[in-house]
Prior knowledge:
6-stranded antiparallel sheet; globular; 236 residues; 3-stranded antiparallel sheet; 9 strands
Amino acid sequence: MPLNCRCLILALTSAFLLVGCAIPQVPSRIVYEDPVNYVRLEEDAGVLAEWPPSHHAHPITIEPGQVREILSGLKVREHRIAMQRWIRGEAELVAAFTDEELAILSARISEALAEAKYNERVTFYLSQPQTLTRRIITTGGLYVQGTELHILLGNWRILYGIPAYGMIYDRRYPMRPTAAKGFDLLFQPSEAVIPVKSSLLDGILANAKDELIIDLTKLDPPDPEVSLIHKVLCGS
């Protein structure tokens, strides 16, 4: 085979491999970004323009202080199956976010919710570099429907290593886990949590309790006149 033909075939093969291995881009808008963290708005594929019940209640105003209070109520616990709980009991509850992470997220998520469209959700990515190729990540996303706040934690303090072939998934897909989830996500006060049904398989894989639905109206203080969330969501 002539040399020029072999070169052409090699070039075409390389091009096809590059296209086949390309990571699809997620349509998004950056709200905040620094070298290791971000908060952004992503298009939610589950929202259909022609079906209003699927629309999110965005844009919406929830003040940074209220966002911080909600995020402070999120707790994480090591996932244990029934046998483990019988032997060792329930694991200790740990705050999902540190004070430093709350400082980053509260104002930026508030800003993102105020800018979000009906078909967008807020996602966040927090990382702590360990080496050039390894970092500890906490990622997730949230959106509001009616008076319900949906929160999903994709990763929580997971040690992520960039693969040798260089494809970096953790920053592109913050709501997807990079490893098997070994935690349950809880919220205090628990009375504000709306129960979500899950399958037996989700329970075995520790995916049953990584998403919460919080009734924002149940977070109101006794005096509705000073309840910002009540005013914003319910129009009173």
